[in-house]
Design goal:
Blueprint lengths: L10 E3 L7 H15 L10 E7 L4 E5 L12 H12 L5 E8 L12 H14 L4 E5 L5 E4 L18
Parallel strand pairs: 4-5
Antiparallel strand pairs: 1-6, 2-3, 2-4, 5-6
Bound molecules: tetrahydrodeoxyuridine.
The site of tetrahydrodeoxyuridine has 13 residues, from helix 2.
């Protein structure tokens, strides 16, 4: 038996001011998107903003529904919007923010969002940064979607 090991490195920044100007703008856009979230059931508002290689920014927020599973997370709303309008879109950075007040640790993407993010990252053959922020103001910079989902399912597996 071989024991294997998987880990990834990420950065913790003291605040948004330690991010690049482009990422600071994403934080502003994500916060604006969050405020427009339709989350009457969970009251948990999430906003996402992503920067494309061509400089365009797409945003999204969570959209809930009385039939609960019919809603969609902010990250997927944002990236589906980008990819549906620009099939060749290359994502450089993604910012996710929430209205959570009492969670010091940043809220991270759910499993389904990770799967979606990984597929687009794999397609574009270039990793993108994911930025999260907890209520203590600290920012987490994760170097790729892939690092959040080891052993992810890929399209190639469908053909095997
Ligand atoms: N949600 C997101 O939009 N993104 C996440 O990463 C986690 C969860 C939404 C889904 C639902 O509308 C609400 O937050 C509570 O789960």
């Amino acid at each position: 038996m071989d024991n294997k090991h998987s880990s990834f490195s990420y950065q913790e920044l003291n605040g948004v001011e330690e991010c690049s100007a482009a990422v600071q703008e994403l934080f502003k856009m994500a916060a604006k998107a969050k405020d427009k979230a339709y989350a009457p059931y969970s009251k948990f508002k999430v906003g996402a903003a992503l920067l494309l290689e061509d400089g365009e920014i797409f945003t999204g927020n969570n959209q809930e529904n009385a039939a609960y599973p019919s809603g969609l997370c902010a990250e997927r709303v944002a990236i589906f919007a980008a990819k549906s309008q620009k099939t060749e879109a290359v994502v450089k950075s993604l910012v996710i923010v929430t209205n959570a007040q009492d969670i010091a640790v940043p809220v991270a993407p759910c499993g389904s969002c990770r799967q979606v993010l990984v597929e687009y990252e794999f397609m574009q053959k270039e990793k993108f940064d994911i930025y999260l922020q907890g209520s203590n103001g600290k920012v987490i910079r994760i170097p790729s979607a892939e690092s959040l989902l080891p052993f992810s399912f890929h399209s190639e597996m469908l053909n095997s």
